[in-house]
């Protein structure tokens, strides 16, 4: 079953994460929850709109650049709301990614979300930055580990456009207009059929994102190399064991034939000699 990004992101912002975030931003938990519920379909809708209009390669370029770091970009929201410093670092990481997705509409959309959820604009920017950071962590790992391509990304998002449009709160219709939600060309069939399925288990760290041909080839090469190294290691070990079992003399380590009998000089001296009559 293919990954549902919207569902995955919703699961990341649990009640405990919302409470921690509300305390750090000095807002109420219900207001932060409204902001998160608005930010998730907005950012994913903006991403779907961008890839549908030929911008998927730009997103992949961001994921392959030094801007994304597997070590510093979180994949779970709980990783970035423990302290104010962690939250701020994640906000800064995700803010540029959100800007890449929403473009010139970023500030207007942030203002709409702040008004809808009744929080400060700075708090709305923080919420959107956190969502962007977790989204970039998820997609970035899929690019590095599974070979996510621009074609795969477009297929994945286009399979979720109906869900994204339905998740956008009614009070944010202007956001839907800015992001041209009505222009989404949703493929026919259920999301998982449109997106396709593959061998991956549907876990947060390894979700079912369609794999590119290059990614498949790279993983196959790694597997073959690994088995080749194991076979060579077993062969070398067998040769060493065989060599150690071969008999050696105690003086110079030269291999000798232990099946032949060697007569000593003393025995040879005792043998009778033939005389000529």
Written as H for each helix and E for each strand, in order along the chain, the element string is HHHHHHHHHHHHH
What is the count of DSSP helices, taking H or I runs of 4+ residues? 13
Uncertain stretches:
197-222
Structural class: mainly alpha
As a percent range, the share of strand residues is under 5%
What Rg is obtained from the alpha carbons, in whole angstroms? 33 Å
The total count of strands amounts to 0
Largest sheet: none
Distance between the termini: 105 Å
What gross morphology would you assign? elongated
Helix content: 55-70%
Which key features would you list for this structure?
2 domains; 277 residues; mainly alpha; single chain; elongated
List the helices and strands and how they pair.
Elements: H1 5-12, H2 15-25, H3 29-52, H4 56-64, H5 84-102, H6 106-117, H7 121-146, H8 150-158, H9 161-167, H10 173-178, H11 191-195, H12 213-245, H13 265-270
Helix pairs in contact: 1-3, 2-3, 3-6, 3-7, 3-8, 3-9, 4-8, 5-7, 6-7
